[in-house]
Amino acid sequence: MDDFDQRLITLLRHDGRRSVSDLALELAASRATVRARMQRLEHTGDVVGYTVVLKADVVSAPVRGITLIEVEGRAKDRVVDALSGFAEVTAIHTTSGKWDLVTELSTESLTALDTLLHRIRLVAGIVASETHLLLATPRSSQARLGPTSS
User: Fold this and answer.
1) CA 133 to CA 47: how far, in whole Å?
2) Residue 98 zone, left/alpha/beta (φ > 0; ψ -120 to 50; rest)
3) 127 within 8 A of 70, measured Cβ to Cβ
4) Which among 15, 59, 67, 110 is most buried, taking Cβ atoms within 10 Å?
5) In b/e form, how buried is each residue of 82-107, taking b as 16+ CB within 10 angstroms?
6) How does pLDDT run across 72-106, given as a tens digit for each residue?
7) Would you say the CATH fold of 60-134 matches that of 3-44?
8) DSSP conformational letter for 74
9) How many helices (H) and strands (E) does the chain have?
10) 3-class SS of residue 109
């Protein structure tokens, strides 16, 4: 993937519905070149699809955090199933090293986060956890809209 592909992907991440003509103008290339590059990126699997980003997907709750979780023995699947039932758990990742799972959390207040952490610690199979608050996100590869009003 060269610089042109990277710039094309950046533009598509920002607005996946942007016309080929618009992309060509921005990239100082012909429409045929842009179309061919998009087809090649799709064919190689570098671009696997285009999607709609809903407001609910990008407006995050004011308090966000990451919780590192240690799981006892073979309880990982059971713990993942339990955590999947918490609406405030926005993602669950398995990992290597000291911690077995990393969860992304999103709540409306610190009090709600405290309540959530208490509920998480009660899940059978969780041995230990460590939580870090996310203060800002200067860069993310996920699509984001500009500031929204509530």
Assistant:
1) 32
2) alpha
3) yes
4) 67
5) bbeeeebbeebeeeeeebbbebbbbb
6) 999 999 999 999 999 899 899 999 999 999 999 99
7) no
8) T
9) 6, 4
10) coil
How many angstroms separate the Cα of 25 from the Cα of each of 1, 30, 31, 54, 107?
20, 8, 8, 27, 42
Asked: is 3-44 a CATH 3.30.450.20 domain? The reply is no
Alpha-carbon span 4 to 10, nearest angstrom: 10
Which is more confident, 60 or 134? Answer: 134
Q: Considering only CA atoms, which of 130, 123, 129, 131 is closest in space to residue 75?
A: 123
Angle between helices 20-27 and 3-14 (to 10 degrees): 130
The pTM (predicted TM-score) of the whole model is 0.61
CATH of 60-134, one of 3.30.1360.120, 3.40.640.10, 3.30.70.920, 3.40.50.170: 3.30.70.920
Length of the chain counted residue by residue? 150
Q: Where are the domains of the chain?
A: 3-44, 60-134
